[in-house]
Structures are given as C-alpha cells and as structure tokens.
Write a structure and sequence with these properties.
heteropentamer, A mainly alpha, B alpha/beta, C mainly alpha, B: alpha/beta, three-stranded antiparallel sheet, globular, C: mainly alpha, binds protoporphyrin IX containing FE, binds adenosine-5'-triphosphate, binds magnesium ion
C-alpha cells in the first residue's frame, strides 16, 4: 500500500503536479483575483476564504477524471482490482495521494497567502486548520465521480453532476468556519465540526461507493 | 491444485458474448484459447480472472486435498491483458518494483526478471522510451517478479520478435513444469506440447 | 548499421550546430575576468551607496533602493535574454541557445525574488504593509510565477532535448509580461514609484543617488553574466555525462 | 475541417468533459462567494462581474490538459499532423471546439447567475457581451499551454500555471469594460475594443505557437 | 512515382537510434522492414512519414516524369502506427467518416470499407465495444476510405486472427498492383512475393 502511495505521488510529481507545483498553482490563482475585484486589500481579506476554497476545488477538479480512467487505459486498473487488498483501501490510498498533491500544498502555503491577503496570524492559523480538515473531503467525494467516469466511459457528465453539488456544502461550511473565526459575530466551532464530520464521513463512504463502482466496471 | 470452470456465460455491453464454457485444469496443465477476432477470448479470460460479472456458471479453485479455497480465484491469478499496465512516466524499475510490492509473494528480484526477458539494460529508462515489443517484454517480466499459481495471458506474444517468442514459450513451459496453471489466448502457435485447447465459436456479433 | 557509426553520427548531429567544445574553452577563459569585474564593481557600488546622503523623506531606507532597483532591472533583463535564446532554439534549433535558456531561468527567478523581497521590505516603512496589490508589485509577482512555471516545465521532461522546444515556445509567449511590468506604473496610477531613471527623456533622479545606482546596476549585470556562463558550462557538462551514460547503457545492451 | 469541429464537439459532449463540468464549477463559484461576502447584497452586486469573470476564467482551464494529450494517446495526433491542412488551422478548430464546449455554455448561463447575484438586466447584458468577446481568447491561449504539455500525462496544474498569467490581461479589460458600462465616469468602448483585439490577436498567435510546438512533438 | 530515402539518421530522446538508412521504391513496390524489438523499425517508419525530425538524410518523392513533388511526402502517406487512432466514444461509422472527410480523396465509402474488412455489422457500435482485433481491422478500413499513393504500416497484423491476416495481405497485394508504394514493418510473414526487405541492425539499446 505504501508502494501505491509512493507510485501515485512520484508519478504525478513527474508530470508536473507535485506539492511544490501545487503551491505555485495556488499562488497563481490567488494572484488572479485582485485583477478582478480590484486592489482593495480590505475587500480581498474579506474574500480570502472564498478564494482559497475555490482554489482548492479547482486544483482537485483538474485531472480528477483521469484518476481512474488513466489506470484503465494503461491496463493497471484490472490488476489493482484483482489483488487481495480490500479495494476500498486501494481507493482510499489513491484519494489520499490525490489530496497530497492538491489539498495539502494549499494548507502548507496558507501562511504565504496570509501575508498577501494580509490575514491576521490568528486567521492564518484558523484557515490552515479549516483547510486541513475540509479539503480531504473534496478528494474523497471526487473519487466517486472519477469511478463513475470509468464505469460509464461515455457518461462522464455524471462526474460533475455528482461531485460538485456534493462539494458545495463542504465549501460553504469551510468558508463559514473561517469567517466565524475572523469575526466574532458568527460561530466557528459549529461549521468546523460539521466540516470534520463531512470529511470523516466521506473518507469512508467515498471509497466505498467508488469500490462498488469499480469492482465490475473494468471491461 | 485444480481450477474448475463450469458452464460460464458472460456478456459485454448488455449482450451475451459467450456461454456454456466449461473446463478443468489441474496443476501443470495449460489451456490454449483460440477463436476468431471478436469471438470472445478476452471476454472469457476476463471472466475467469474475475474481471467481469458472470451471467451464470462458476469458477472455483481447489487445493490438492480437494477442499475449495475461500478467497476468490482472482487473488491467485496473474492477468496479462492487451494492455501492459506500465505507467508511462515511471522508469521500468519503478514500475516493476511497484507491482512486486503491491502484489506481494516476491519470486524473482526486478533485476533478475528483466535479465530473464533480456532487457536489463533498459532498467532505468522511463517506460515510454521502450518500443512496443520491449514494453510487452517488461509486462512479461511482471509475471516473474511475484508468485501466482495461475497465469491468465491474453495474446502475450503480440508485438514480440521471433526470439522473444522463444524466450517466452520457454518461460511458460518452465511455469507449467513447476505445477502452474496456464490459460492463454492466442492467434499464433506458442510451441506448447500436449495442451488442452478451447475453441470459441464463430463471431457472434 | 553498427553502433560505432551510430554513436559517431550522434556526436556529430547532437552538437553539430554549435561547437560546445569551443564554447567551453571560451567560457573557461572569460569567467575569471567576469568574476573579478563583479567583485570590483560591487566594492565600488556598495562604497558609493553607503556614502550616499540620506533621502529627506525616506531616510536610511533609501539604501534598499541600491539593492532593489538593480535587482528589478535584472529580473527583466534576464527574461529578455531568455527570450532571445528561445528564438535561437525555435528558429535555428541551436543547442547552445537551449542551454543558455535553461541556465538563465533560475537566475532570473532569484533576481525577481530579490526585487520582491527588498521591495516588500521597503514597502513596510514606506506604505505600512508588506504587500500591496499595486500594479507593479503584482506584475513582478506574475513574472516570478512565470519564471517558476518555466523551470517546472523544463523539469517535467525526463530528456533535456525534449524540453527545449516547449520551454522556448512558452518563454516567448510569456514575454508580454515585460512591457506590462515596465509601463504598469504609468497605466494604472499606483503607490509604486514611476520610472525616474530608465525614462526615455533624461533621468529625474538626483545624481548623488543616480551614480551609485548605476554602478550597482553594472555590478549586478557582471554578476549575472558570471553566473550565467558558469551554469551554462555545468549544463553542457551534465548533458555530456548523460549521453555518455546512455551510450554505455546501449553498449551493455549489445554485449 | 467542419468534420473536425463536429467530431470534437460530439466527442467531448459524449464524454461530458466540457460543458456541464464548466457550468457547474461556474455555479459553485457563484454560490460560495455570498458566504464569504456575507449578507451585504450591495457589495455582492458590485462584485458580481468580477465573480462571473473569475468563474469563467477558471472554468475554461478544466479539460485543457486533455486537448492534445488524448489525441496523442489514441494515436490520432500523428494523423492530424500529417495531413495537408495547415496545422495552425487544425489547432484553431480544436481551440474553437474547446470554446464551444466550455466558454459558450458559461456565456449562455450568465443570465441565470446574474439573477442569483441580483444584477440589473443591463449589467447582465454587458457581462454576457464581454464574456462572449473575451472567453475565446482563454481557449486560444490555452492551446499553447496544452500543446506545450502534450507529453505530460497529468499536466493539468502545470498548464494552468503557465496559462493563467497570460490570460490576466483578458480579465483586466473584461472587468474594465463592465465597469465602464455601469458607471459613466469610465469608458466602455476602449477596454471592450481592447478585449476584442486580444481575442483576434490570440486567435492567430495561439494556434501559431501551438503548431510550432506540435509539428515535431509527436514521437 | 518514386520514393527515395537517402541515408536517413533518426534519434529518439536525444539518442541516435538508426542511421545510414537508404532505399528506393517505385510505384507498385513493397518494402518489408524487419528487425528485433527495439531495433528501430517504428522509428524508421515515423521518420519516413515525417513524424520525426531527421538528424540527416532526406526523403523525397518524384512523379513519373522525374520531377519532385513540392508538398512534403507525409501528405501522400497513410500511416498506421501501433495505435489505431479511433476515438473511444464515437461509433465506428463516426470515426471512419471523420477520417474520410478530414483526409479527403475519398476512395471507398465507409460501408464498403467495413465490408472489405468484414465488420459491417459493427458499423454503429461505439468503437470501444470492439475487440482488439476488430479495432485493428477498423484501422485497416481507415486505409481504404481515402486514397493515398503511399502506405506506411507498423505491425498492421498484430492482434489479427489468421483469416483477417489473409484478408489483409490480399488488400496490400491489390494496393501494390494498383501502383501503390508500401512500407511495412512486421515480425510475421505477410505472404507478399518479391518484396524488397530492410533488415534493421541488432537492438542498439
Ligand atoms: C514587492 C514590491 C516591489 C516590487 C515588485 C517592485 C518592483 C520594481 C521594478 C520592476 C522596478 C523597475 C522599474 C523600471 O525600471 O522602470 C522598480 C523600481 C523602483 N522601485 Fe520598486 N518595487 C517594489 C517596491 C518598492 C517600494 C516599496 C519602493 C519605495 C517606496 C520602491 C521604489 C522603487 C524605486 C525608487 C524604483 C526606481 C524607479 C526608476 O527610477 O526607474 N519599490 N521597482
Ligand atoms: N467493452 C465492451 N463492451 C461491449 N462489447 C464488447 C466490449 N468488448 C468486447 N465486446 C464485444 O465482445 C465480443 C468479444 O470481444 P473479445 O475482446 O472477447 O474478442 P476476442 O476474442 O478477444 O477478439 P480478439 O481476438 O480481437 O482479441 C466482440 O464481438 C465485441 O464486439
Ligand atoms: N519515445 C521514445 N523516446 C526515447 N527513445 C525511444 C522512444 N521510442 C523508442 N525509443 C527507443 O528507440 C529504439 C527503437 O524503438 P522502436 O519503437 O523504433 O523499435 P521497434 O523496432 O519498433 O521495436 P518493436 O518491434 O518492439 O516495435 C528502442 O530501443 C527504444 O528504446
Ligand atoms: Mg482479445
Ligand atoms: Mg515498433
């Protein structure tokens, strides 16, 4: 299983999407926003949570559909499915690897963005924690979509219909949590706990659903 | 060890492709599956390997004492399909090491396995640098790095040059002599003696 | 078709266009002088800047200018050098052009980072924040991103000769950023200082700041060329080693 | 060439890579912003154009990585390159197809989202026009990124990093044009014409650069 | 019509793979390229098809009167590589129609071409429903839908069953008799009489 994790990360790192690449990617995305909303730092600070979460979503959507279709096209999927390892676990690992290259970099880079969007150190802390708790959910939900795309090669539509609506709540709670932490008028713990709940929940259900899809999809 | 397949029926895309397939293989026996293009060889092999749902029929594996293994048969199989299951952007070594670790039951070391298919000099090349036949040979090396009692091979020699074909048939002979069970679909003679053969009916579609 | 002929041809074709051996000799002979020039210029430049009078509004922080401004200029100059090399790669398929492009990219990234860092260090006392989304800062930040993107791209290929074309094409398309940086302050009116030295009419900066600045700029340029030549030399060497490795791999394949 | 356009659109429609994914991502972006901005609808309305443009910009990045990589993997690229059609034209068509399946749907969806962000009909109109004029440029610039990364199986992130900085001018002028239309103090035609100019410009340069890239990349 | 290839040298991944390759083919002649896996057959074919930059040497095409065509040779070629160039999610008909329209110079209609490779029954199946050999046969049909004086085929028969191979060799014979120029890399005999052969040296890697 470690082998799988290693292979996933090395492979995606080779073709230019490692952790460092992730940080660079988010830097780019963040830089784009001021051009749209204007250089008003106060406003940007207020939008920061939305910016970061949208970046996270975009990052994991890019190449999400390749998560399993690529395995299928080069024939690896058959072998992954045949082994004695529980398929759920295999998928969980793949999802985690996906998160390592898409979600984790954002978490690590948050302090940097804290400076650029001048968040208070406290806010940076909270944002990091919230992203850490929330972004894995995106990857886990994503695997379901990716699995569907394999099962129905020509029903790729479903990937988006399935993933995005499920993801929206994650984003909403994530943003709410950060906002709550930054201004006292809104609650923090509520949304945050919700976020953790969603992540734990999806970390099981996502791989489960995906494994059901994949078990006999390979054809 | 004994593999029993009882009137298997399989469908692809909602259409039944093959049906009534039955055979028995004991340790050391080989089954050659032949038939026209589109007759259902790959389908059958995938069915046996547990990669397709069975419409009906069953695939069971018994040990010497005649009691059935409780794990699904697929866990005892090597499956080599039309695709080579190599990641383009990893080196040959990385690919093989991964499959060895992931499949477990180490048999030969990666270096030895590559030596067997005489590709040791390509070990550190990214696998998309290899030619078609070289890729195929790496996929064959994959069979040697970890130990499985059953090999299910789908046109293993496609793209191989003459001497690699000899090399390959030497390997499968050795495998059968060590009491392995071999199921291979092919259009070309593989130079195996006394094999069972399964001829799949004419193209249904 | 034996391997010997193959390798001979290889030697002739891969490096046929340019003669790197001659380049290496050239580099070896020039680098020491560049090095000495760099040291001297920096000595003079730093001396002059330290003796420059304190600015009436900026106080001692004006010293940062002598680091910041040349760094910013070099950031842009380096990209221009890269773009020229890119042309060399695309039009003439000149191997050395690619080597110089690859060698320059990290240097450019470093200079840009220096401009950003010193800039924001300077911004704290001047404007009270480390970072402002002011036109020039942002455009330089984008330049920085482009540099990193190019480096990442060239690293993504496992064979340098395959990376040449993509990186060159991308470098050229990225060139649009340079004019944007240059004129950003004039297009959007922002916090940042408009060009007061590099203007098309005569400079609008007091000579006691101007001269040390110019000397520092020269020092930076000398530094750039020293480092560029050195890393080009390394690049050529590493490629030779690589193709030697490949060759031995082949000969093993035969035996 | 019509054949190519048809094939591209049908194919990406079947595999749903483009249209829906884009629109739903767009929707997500629009949905989550209010949660960051908070209840203040005035601010939201004011931000609306920015939000829509950002959404469009990021959505167009999805599926860029597959533009040429897929052709290469199934062997079509060789044949596309060999024909007597000028390669530039072929790429131009592919870029247009990409726009039809990602950019155009966003433009068409704008009114809907305009309502969500309670924009005035006039504002919606202007936004649509600017998007219509601007988004093609994104696809055209995108092809360069896609061509450059044609050999990288999972180049999604890398491509975005390379492309985003280049499309920022599009964003700037798009936003400027909208601002110009809404308040009389700023000009509209100026930025808008710039936008059209950029699109025309890139519609030639993008395919040109990409073709230089692809001519010998096929190996 | 006459194709002249003069001491071609090609490299892959910065390494020269083949060099000093020269041959001449006049209308109706066929060249069979053989060699071990990894010897450089595909590389050579890609070089002739204009899909790889030439290190040195040249590829020129002359008409009957001996004057050279000004268009690059690749525009006169059909190239059939290891991959079939079929879009998974389009039907066979859609795929072939596309290539026919895109390549121009219509020869056979899509239906006739499929009839030739006897796959007419699959015409409206999505092409990922086809078996390996069927896919390959569709790719062969692709050669028939539009007219090109030069065919460059890389292991065209891989995955084909015996009778499809006959079918195929019948087609290439017919093509040569109509004055076509054929270059084919293969590991298996194709039943062509009096062909030139080019044996590419031992595996360099
Ligand atoms: C991270 C922030 C900053 C960046 C990225 C930046 C970037 C640049 C660049 C690119 C130039 C070259 C301009 C040209 O050649 O026309 C420049 C020049 C200059 N910068 Fe900055 N700068 C930053 C912050 C500052 C700050 C805070 C100050 C001081 C208030 C400052 C003062 C100057 C001055 C005086 C020049 C010389 C202008 C000239 O004479 O051309 N910069 N900067
Ligand atoms: N993924 C699929 N979906 C639907 N039908 C399929 C699929 N794959 C194959 N088929 C159909 O099943 C039949 C058998 O396919 P199969 O691949 O088993 O043939 P095969 O004997 O392996 O042929 P070949 O010798 O070409 O490999 C074919 O007629 C094909 O049309
Ligand atoms: N994309 C590539 N990059 C680098 N080297 C390559 C690439 N493709 C092939 N090679 C090398 O070029 C040599 C020749 O490859 P080629 O595909 O031409 O062999 P081939 O004769 O077609 O073999 P096969 O019979 O297996 O198809 C091989 O040694 C291989 O390692
Ligand atoms: Mg088959
Ligand atoms: Mg080949």
């Amino acid at each position: 299983m470690i082998a799988l994790l290693k292979r996933e990360i090395v492979s995606s790192w080779r073709s230019g999407s490692g952790a460092l690449m992730g940080v660079l990617f988010f830097l780019t995305v963040v830089t784009v926003f001021p051009f749209a909303v204007g250089p008003d730092t106060r406003l940007l600070t207020q939008l920061a949570p939305a910016i970061l979460w949208i970046g996270a979503l975009l990052a994991s959507l890019l190449g999400l559909d390749r998560l399993f279709t690529q395995e299928r096209e080069d024939g690896s999927l058959d072998l992954l499915v045949m082994q004695s390892h529980p398929l759920m676990l295999t998928i969980f690992i793949k999802a985690s690897a996906h998160w390592f290259t898409t979600g984790l970099p954002l978490v690590l880079a948050t302090p940097l963005f804290g400076i650029m969007l001048n968040l208070s150190p406290a806010a940076v802390g909270v944002t990091m924690v919230t992203l850490l708790a929330g972004t894995p959910a995106i990857s886990f939900i994503g695997t379901v979509g990716a699995a569907v795309a394999v099962k129905l090669p020509r029903g790729g539509m479903l990937i988006s219909i399935l993933v995005l609506p499920l993801v929206i709540p994650v984003l909403i709670f994530g943003i709410a949590a950060i906002a709550g932490a930054s201004n006292t008028s809104q609650p923090f713990t509520g949304p945050f706990l919700f976020l953790c709940a969603i992540t734990l929940f999806t970390s099981v259900l996502g791989p489960l659903a995906a494994s059901v899809m994949l078990r006999h999809s390979a054809d | 060890m004994k593999l029993i397949v009882e009137n298997l029926a399989l469908s692809r895309g909602g259409q039944q492709i093959v049906s009534g397939i039955s055979f028995e293989l004991t340790a050391g026996e080989a089954l050659v599956v032949t038939g026209e293009n589109g007759s259902g060889k790959s389908t059958t092999l995938r069915g046996v390997a547990g990669l397709l749902p069975l419409d009906h029929g069953q695939v069971c594996l018994f040990d010497e004492t005649g009691k059935q293994f409780e794990e699904p048969v697929r866990e005892y199989c090597h499956y080599l399909g039309h695709k080579n299951a190599l990641k383009q952007n990893l080196t040959v070594r990385e690919n093989l090491t991964f499959w060895q670790d992931f499949m477990g039951d180490t048999l030969l070391s990666v270096e030895e396995a590559l030596e067997e298919v005489n590709l040791s000099h390509t070990i550190d090349l990214p696998s998309n640098y290899l030619s078609t036949g070289q890729k195929r040979r790496v996929a064959i090396a994959k069979l040697l790095v970890s130990d499985r009692p059953i090999w299910i091979l789908d046109e293993p020699t496609s793209g191989l040059d003459a001497q690699s074909v000899d090399m390959f048939s030497h390997h499968i002979k050795a495998f059968c002599e060590d009491g392995g069970i071999l199921i291979v679909a092919t259009h070309l003679p593989l130079g195996l003696k006394d094999t069972k053969t399964l001829k799949i009916g004419t193209e249904p579609l | 078709m034996t391997i010997e002929t193959a390798t001979d041809n290889k030697a002739s074709n891969l490096w046929g266009l340019a003669n790197p051996t001659r380049f290496m000799r050239f580099a070896d002979s020039v680098i020491p002088f560049c090095f000495i020039a760099t040291v001297l210029l920096f000595a003079i430049g730093l001396y002059m800047s330290l003796n420059a009078p304190e600015d009436y509004q900026q106080g001692a922080t004006v010293l940062i200018m002598f680091i910041h401004v040349p760094a910013a200029w070099l950031a842009m100059m380096t990209y221009s050098v890269m773009s020229v090399s890119a042309l060399g790669t695309i039009v003439w398929r000149h191997p050395l052009a690619d080597v110089s492009l690859r060698a320059a990219a990290p240097l450019g990234a470093v200079f840009t980072f220096l401009a950003l860092a010193t800039g924001s260090l300077w911004g704290k006392p001047m404007w009270g924040t480390w970072w402002e989304w002011d036109a020039r800062m942002t455009s330089v930040l984008i330049l920085f991103i482009i540099y990193l993107g190019l480096i990442a791209l060239s690293k993504a290929f496992d064979e340098p000769s395959e990376a040449a074309q993509p990186v060159a094409v991308m470098t050229l398309t990225g060139f649009v950023i340079i004019p944007i940086i240059k004129f950003s302050v004039d297009w959007w009116n922002t916090l940042h200082q408009p060009a007061s030295v590099s203007r098309f009419d005569r400079p609008a900066m007091a000579p006691e700041f101007l001269y040390p600045l110019l000397v520092m700029a020269l020092a930076y340029i000398a530094l750039f060329f020293t480092l560029h030549l050195m890393s080009m030399r390394n690049e050529v060497l590493s490629r030779r080693i690589r193709s030697l490795k490949m060759k031995t791999a082949r000969s093993k394949g035969i035996s």
